[in-house]
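Retro notes, item 3 of 5
We never archived the inputs for the arginine complex last cycle. Fixing that now. Sequence and ligand:
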Amino acid sequence: MKTLKFLFTTLLSAVFAVFVVTACNSQAPDSASSPGASPAASPAETLTMATSADYPPYEFIETSSGSEEIVGFDIDIAKYITEQLGFGLEINNVDFNGLIPALQAGRADFVMAGMTPTEERKQNADFSMIYYEAKNTIVSKAGSNLTDAASLEGKKVGVQLGSIQEGFAKDTLTGAEIIPLNRINEIVQEIKANRIDAAIIEDTVAKGYTASNPDLEFTVIPNEGVAGSAIAFPKGSELLAQFDPVLQEMIDSGKIEELVTKWFSGEPAS
Ligand code: ARG
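Structure as it came back at the time:
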């Protein structure tokens, strides 16, 4: 009886051992593929960028190709940097005022939207170095003679909600009625329809809109405080330390300059 029991146990262990070995073997190809594989074989991590695609030539929706692709200066920079760092890139269109909240909510890994790194924004996001400087302008109906801050006294002035232009207008144009709107093309339409008198818009963007709308003109006004564009990240993001050296390299090698020429001196987008 004892022998029988011994035999049975031995047999059982043997069967179990075979099972374990088989199980291990069948797992082996899977587990071996990750540590030993070349990095190119593993799928690249995709970063999500949020932008407000109402801002040609920085970012806008290209419709002429039939598809609705977001293109522009910022998009080319984002593509270059993520490619250099080996990331995939997905771009989401969000109203400008919702961009920093999108970072805070973890819905975006970074924001590129011609965004200026103001002290207030730095409380809620980390910023890269500035990669492009800009100036403000007054956009108005051609011949309206609204060419300086004083001339906007008593006028309706459009600005993009949440932009530094809104801050500038509220602080500086105290005698004007400031009308914040979500999208730059809405602001342009309001001027064309005479529902507002003027708008404060960044120079390169104003240049594009006035070129495609000959009934409008713009005048550059002196800068107050910080201007220019930087990339925004969620506070504490490790991406900042990876992005900044690539941006620096783009500045040093003339790559940024090449993109400035491509987007800012060609035919303006509408
Ligand atoms: N530079 C300005 C700012 O930071 C305006 C940027 C607006 N950008 C946009 N994509 N609409 O407030």
